[in-house]
């Protein structure tokens, strides 16, 4: 297991944070926490948090800090290590996180706006089992059906092109300043998100172990 236990992955939507976080967790044994996945679970359960969050998510806007910070605090309580994917997204969230726990390294996975839109608008999800496909990188044999269970494939509301554009603009306005925030604290490490996934993973492993 890596000796660095508290890791944040930054980057725009579609940069591969979720993929890299899962791979990194498998290689290091650290807990992977994706705020996007956690929020979607709350929405699917129809919880009060999920009900409040759904409107923001469907528009591609950021979910309010009080909802996110409370959820993160609960999830990392008494955990010795973690990989945060999708949080923090603003400097205010980063400051709140710093009051909860110190960090060891922040990895920024960079990707251009045009590539973000191309990647995310190509994602499809199975209604039955939740498996995610990408028509560019991992296409199913049948573009309408899941190869695993035969369920219908659909495009999530937040993967529509116009919503993606808004998500990226929100990222650029509110989340990109985190690069400066963590850079000033000596925690930031940069990775090229346009490289192959396996290459990115090895680079990230080198950074978090270094």
Could you please describe the fold and organization of this structure?
- This protein has 210 residues and is an alpha/beta fold.
- The chain has a domain at 6-111 and 192-209: P-loop containing nucleotide triphosphate hydrolases (Rossmann fold), CATH 3.40.50.
- Helices cover 48% and strands 16% of the residues.
- It is built from nine helices and eight strands.
- It has helices at 17-28, 35-45, 48-59, 65-76, 91-100, 113-120, 161-175, 177-184, 197-209, and strands at 6-10, 31-34, 82-85, 105-110, 123-126, 132-134, 153-154, 188-192.
- Strands 2-3-1-4-8 form a five-stranded parallel sheet, with helices on both faces. A three-stranded antiparallel sheet has the order 6-5-7, with no helix packed on it.
- A hairpin with a 5-residue loop joins strand 5 (123-126) and strand 6.
- Helix 6 (113-120) crosses helix 7.
- The radius of gyration is 17 Å and the shape is globular.
- The protein starts with 5 loop residues before the first strand and ends with a helix.
């Amino acid at each position: 297991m890596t000796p660095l236990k508290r890791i944040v992955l930054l980057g725009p939507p579609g940069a591969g944070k979720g993929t890299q976080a899962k791979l990194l967790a498998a290689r290091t044994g650290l807990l992977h926490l994706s705020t996007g996945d956690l929020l979607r679970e709350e929405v699917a359960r129809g919880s009060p948090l999920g009900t409040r969050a759904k409107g923001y998510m469907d528009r591609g806007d950021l979910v309010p800090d009080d909802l996110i910070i409370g959820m993160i605090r609960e999830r990392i309580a008494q955990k010795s290590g973690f990989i945060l994917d999708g949080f923090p997204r603003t400097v205010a969230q980063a400051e709140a996180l710093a009051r909860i726990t110190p960090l060891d390294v922040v990895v920024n996975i960079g990707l251009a706006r045009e590539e973000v839109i191309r990647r995310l608008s190509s994602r499809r999800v199975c209604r039955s089992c939740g498996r995610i496909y990408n028509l560019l990188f991992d296409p199913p044999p049948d573009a309408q059906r899941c190869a695993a269970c035969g369920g219908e494939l659909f495009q999530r509301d937040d993967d529509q092109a116009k919503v993606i554009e808004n998500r990226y603009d929100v990222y650029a306005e509110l989340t990109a300043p985190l690069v400066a925030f963590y850079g000033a604290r000596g925690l930031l490490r940069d990775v090229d998100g346009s490289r192959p996934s396996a290459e990115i993973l090895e680079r990230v492993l080198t950074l978090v172990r270094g």
